[in-house]
Amino acid sequence: MYAEMKAKLSGVVPDFELKIKAELAAEINRLKTEKNAVILGHNYMEPALFYSIPDFVGDSLELARKAAQTDKDIIVFCGVKFMAETAKLLNPTKTVLLPAKKAGCSLAESITAEDVRELKKKFPGVPVVTYVNTYADVKAESDICCTSGNAKAVVDSLGTDTVIFLPDEYLAKNVAKETGKRIIFPTMDPRKTSDEDLDYQMVGWLGRCEVHDKFTVEDIANVRKQFPDVTILAHPECSPEVVAASDFSGSTTAMIRHVEKTNAPHYLLLTECAMGDNVAAANPDKDMLRLCSVRCPHMNQITLEDTLESLKKNQYIIEIPEDILKRAARAVERMIAIG
Ligand code: SF4
């Protein structure tokens, strides 16, 4: 295990740390086989975990697909709670484990099921598209889910003039730009919204990812001053201004593919820090710059130590009430059918 990890990560993770982590990873992989478990790892996992224990890695859409296909008894989700919940929605009879209790998400916490019900009352008959970065009860109030990789395709698939798109303000603005739709944002409490200016095609919400919200156009200008030939890739949870000032925008998977397929002198990823390390490890011939002031405090909760405990003690089990599960699963399955 150590030799494998060293070959991949010697330039990214210090050697003493690799030795400790390789031991943990070997023990996790042994238990994984013993318990007939599958481990799914999101692209934002730290490199030592990302390159050692997951059977599958990817973005939330890819991992949702893998979760839907698994025949293992236990799914351990190395990601945040809404992702583990999505795996449970697609595998209601299996045990789904999240290694850290508190791995939340600022976007998922920005909206409640009651907020969605109020929006539906205010905009009756308008279909609700919900980003997968939400909890199951919010998904249950939605017609269909989307990820950053398929948001435009999902909105287009509805074939309607109007859509409620929740909860990420920036993703909604970026999708509105792509689809040419006029977007409005009722206040955080839709019950208090006045009826002024309801000339809309898209209704958004003011949720934000606390990581992508930190990147600014000024950051981009500073990097370009030092590295004029850099290719900058921004996640669509960044503001539309940041996306416009970048060279490419797409989901984490789309960013990885773009780096693999192109040959720029330097790359800069505007997304969670750990992914820069993971992409650097997979592409040692490419120069990855880092603008790495923030790690997602939620993704950061998932460690090899906690994953080992999770497998040993069967913790923390994801449970979703039956009526919520059925309705939320429908919204996720509709999305998966679109691709
Ligand atoms: S990176 Fe942002 S969207 Fe992803 S889990 Fe962290 S807070 Fe949520």
Write the layout of secondary structure elements.
Elements: H1 2-9, H2 15-34, E1 37-42, H3 47-50, E2 56-58, H4 60-69, E3 74-78, H5 81-90, E4 95-97, H6 113-122, E5 128-131, H7 136-140, E6 144-146, H8 151-158, E7 163-166, H9 169-179, E8 183-184, E9 202-203, H10 217-226, E10 230-234, H11 240-245, E11 248-249, H12 252-261, E12 266-270, H13 273-282, E13 288-289, H14 304-313, H15 322-338
Parallel strand pairs: 1-2, 1-3, 3-4, 5-6, 5-7, 7-9, 8-9, 10-11, 10-12, 12-13
Bound molecules: iron/sulfur cluster.
Structure commentary:
- With 339 residues, the protein is of the alpha/beta class.
- Helices cover 44% and strands 14% of the residues.
- It contains 15 helices and 13 strands.
- Helix 4 runs parallel beside helix 5 (81-90).
- The longest helix is centred in the first third of the chain and has 20 residues, at 15-34.
- The radius of gyration is 20 Å and the shape is globular.
- Iron/sulfur cluster (SF4) binds at residues 80, 105-107, 133, 209-211, 272, 296, 298-299.
- Iron/sulfur cluster (SF4) binds next to loops.
Task: Name its key features.
339 residues, alpha/beta, 4-stranded parallel beta sheet, globular, binds iron/sulfur cluster
Ligands, deduplicated: iron/sulfur cluster
Distance from N terminus to C terminus (CA atoms, Å) equals: 35 Å
Mean of residue pLDDT values: 93
Determine the fraction of residues in helical runs and give it as a percent range.
40-55%
Taking strands numbered 1, 2, ... along the chain, how are they ordered across the largest sheet?
Answer: 6-5-7-9-8
- CA radius of gyration is 20 Å
Query: Secondary-structure element order, as H and E?
Result: HHEHEHEHEHEHEHEHEEHEHEHEHEHH
